[in-house]
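[scheduler] slot 2 assigned
[scheduler] job type: sequence-to-structure, two independent chains
[scheduler] chain ordering preserved from manifest
[runner] begin chain α
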Amino acid sequence: MKRLFIGLALLASSTFTCAITPTSPPNLKQMAGEFEQELTGNILPYWIKHAPNPKTGGFYGQVSADGKADATAERGALLSSRILWSYSSAYLNYKNASYRKLADQAFSDLETTFWDKKNGGLYWSVSGDGKPLQTHKQIYGQVFGIYGYAEYFRATGNPQALERAKTLYRLVEQYALDKQNGGYLEVLGEDWKLQPNTTNSLGSTSAKSQNTHLHIMEAYTNLLRIWPDAQLKQQQKALLGIMLDKILDPKTNHLALFMSADWKVEGDGISYGHDIEAAWLLVEAAEVLGDADLLKRTRALAVKIADVTIAEGMDKDGAILNEASATKGLTNSGKDWWAQAEAVVGFINAYEITGEAKYLTAATQTWGFIKTHIVNHQTGEWHWGTDRAGKVIVQPTLSMWKCPYHNSRAMMESAHRLQKLTAKPITQ
């Protein structure tokens, strides 16, 4: 069965349920206030308290769900880059000195611990005491460096951060760009040489992935905000074309997860969280790029993806389910924290575009699930997620992958967007 039959396959699944319950239109100012309170009262204080390792000047590699830090755990540049982005953005928006302090610490950590002084770029991981462990150049990790450095420059004006972002961009373009087929490869060696058949950030050996391209686009968007370089604009426009013409399936409005070097889709997996995250990031990329045609196209697509996410990926409790397959139906009924965060922004984005209340209702229902099941009311921050029945999945609150980036960004984005919308009527 081809991917265009995903809707039929999912509806045929006896375990799959999607629902959106009509509710009264929310008070936008109140909802924006809830997002800001969650950000400043719960998420940001957690990382200030639990992430820094005072003995090394860096961060812990792992903190358990009950708040116990493991100073020996492997830790990644990805976590430090994401802390850098989150606290730079928070400082940019709120001018709180404690946010600036943690952003400064993350910048220093990347510089002193993760930067490859011989070859350039960021190591993937180091030991708890800061010795390089996985020294390959995962492109996914490099572009989060760009994302964080660019935001730090926006917040502080530190010229070294801008130069680091430019350097990473040039390294990615020099070594990871597929000059024959377009797009970007996944994994390179410590010396930036190609390493074929190497596992990428999502555990696949495919030559290319949607996830890496999505986050390259995201990083280039942020770099364009501070450095409107002509070549960068050209590469970003080409990348949006790849997202829309190579990775998106126009029949289903899902994004393929994995592809060969020449863009043959490998597998039929669907990630609802990545779909809805891509929906609003594509619009943002087109806006910053300043391309009217791409903006029109991405705005229309963002609404279609929101519709598909509600119809296929939203459970009856408002949560976004993790993954499905075009041939097997629902394959992962978990409800991870990051997918819920991205869905709130994606649905509000669709509401901004259309003015249709159903998207605001969807955002409200996902936010309700987050408040009830995902927010950790005991130790702070958010749980990893829940199973389908709502039972909390116990995983470390801080780890190589568990970070403040998805939820802090969702709270800032959502609050800002709703604040701009408060003067606009809700379509009934």
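[runner] end chain α
[runner] begin chain β
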Amino acid sequence: MTDPAPDRLASRHRTRLADRLEATGLLRSAAWRAAVLAVPRELFVPAFFRRSDGPQGTVWAPVQPDTQGADTWLEEVYTDETLVTQLAGGVHPGDADGPVGGEPTSSSTLPSLVVRMLEDLDPKEGARVLEIGTGTGYSTALMCHRLGGDHVTSIEYDPATAARARTAITTAGYSPRLIQSDGLKGDDDGAPYDHLIATCSVRTIPPAWLRQVKPGGTILTTVSGWLHGSGLARLTVGEDGSAFGTFLPGTVSFMIARPHAAPDLGDFSSLLRQPAEERPAHHGQEVFQEWVPLFLTQLAAPKAQRISTRVDGGPWLVHTIDVGSGSFATLVPSDDGFRVRQGGPHRLWDDVEAAIDAWKAAGSPPQSAFTLTVTPTEQRVRLDTPEGPSWTLPT
């Protein structure tokens, strides 16, 4: 006979998680609470990487059930944290004997964000949902419990991640339609959908998503970019194939969809050696540490990337580089703040500072004061004030 103790232990952890999420106000409805209580997260995160920062940089230690006691293991699985499950596009915890390097490329998103987004999406009984980014499959299973598997379609780009998610979802007893493909292309075969939710970020809203969601339906996705400014947008699709909505409150970010990921900068040293103009900077490196200013920096320089360099123990220099246009802006620490060196055909930092100054002149409103309008020809973010400026998302 199977020992029921582990199941009872996991059930207690799920109850505690649901209580914590409810206390934050992010879990607001009985239907989604029932899903959190029913779906065993441990099936979807059987192993993960724990981050450690040291003198040699960031490394990731594999964490698996057989290395810890059941209660300790489940307690970590049911923390309200994002658990990294893949590095460098293909390294999984079972592949590593010890700490390894690499950038996270797949994860189980922290439960509070998963639940918050499902509450924001607010699908009603009978609604059909297209999920972009199956990931571990945990959010897919929550939707299956709430709506029924025949109302959920989920697309995953990475083949190995898709296979693991399929196994976990099936083991949990759910049967959604699962597709291994490029989620930016959506699912023409199953369209139209009532709602679309993306658990990856995009630089622009893919045209396929607009076609595949019914008029009056909802698209919920994070808009991000190569500078890592980010905002969660909720859009309503119009009869004419356009969409309009606002950015929701909170600091929400996801890994960018791989087809939208930044290209390799390559050797940019010659670009930085070109003639440049230097002046005092009105805004310095702090724009990269504050949520809305970083979002504005992303809007003002949508094709730029950021990198820091240091020579012979000197000060750290922060470069904002648009390789496509051959433009750059370098922030250099000075006694009274920062100076900025700008070269190439575009003055990137002039555009950044103009965006931040306009926001400050409007009273430094929260991100929820920004709107996003999507048409077949243009996607534009606007600060929704009488004199609000706007910015076009990159194509």
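[runner] end chain β
[qc] chain β: Residues 157 and 181 are 5 Å apart (CA to CA).
[scheduler] slot 2 released
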